[in-house]
Amino acid sequence: QVRDNMFWSLTSGVGFWTGYEVLMFWAMANGWAPHLSWAGSPVWFVLLFPLTPVWISFHFYWIHRALHWGPLYRLAHGLHHRNVNVGPWSGLSMHPVEHLMFFSSVLIHVIVPAHPLHILFHMQHQALTAATSHTGYESLLVKDRQALALGTFHHQMHHRYFEVNYGNLEVPWDKWFGSFHDGTAEAHERLKSRRGRPG
């Protein structure tokens, strides 16, 4: 599983990651994407950093739900779901069609002005959170204190039940759109009810 995950992550994953970065830098350099500067708008320049993960989270939630539609699942997302017991390399282990969709969140900057630093931050955040959400660890501890929540259990439930927890924990899209599963018996009953199964 690890070698297979590394193959898809390093070939297709890094390929699309790099391709989208190059495309956005080219678009900015050639006037196809609006450019933002620190001197011109320092407040928006700073605000774009915390707003970017919210956008990535929203985009990921809906793209991920779309990938669970039968034809797209069979074509692309099934490759990722071969990983029932996930590890860090599972995060970007995707079919090229899924990578095309996954990294497309950066195209928001064809409309929303950004600086090249924002593009780098956007792409790094998107790729690295895919890895951290598949680590198998719920949080990173420093001196026995939680330094970083990784949300692995949340996503592990998705790999187990498929129809829950499409998003991440930074923004509670799953709670808002009725696809949240926290591992409790009550959540499992809601899932069975949604699937139309008795009891």
The level of helicity is 55-70%
**What structural class do the secondary elements suggest?**
mainly alpha
Q: Which shape, going by the Cα principal axes?
A: globular
Low-confidence stretches: none
Transmembrane segments: 6-29, 41-63
Protein name: Desaturase
GO molecular function: iron ion binding; oxidoreductase activity
Keywords: Membrane, Transmembrane, Transmembrane helix
Question: Explain this structure to me?
Answer:
With 199 residues, the chain is mostly helical. The longest helix is centred in the first third of the chain and has 28 residues. The chain contains eight helices and two strands, in the order αααααββααα. The protein has a two-stranded antiparallel sheet with strand order 1-2. The chain is globular and about 55 Å long. It starts with a helix and ends with a helix. Helices cover 57% and strands 5% of the residues. This is Desaturase. Keywords: Membrane, Transmembrane, Transmembrane helix. It comes from Roseovarius nubinhibens. One of its GO terms (molecular function) is iron ion binding.
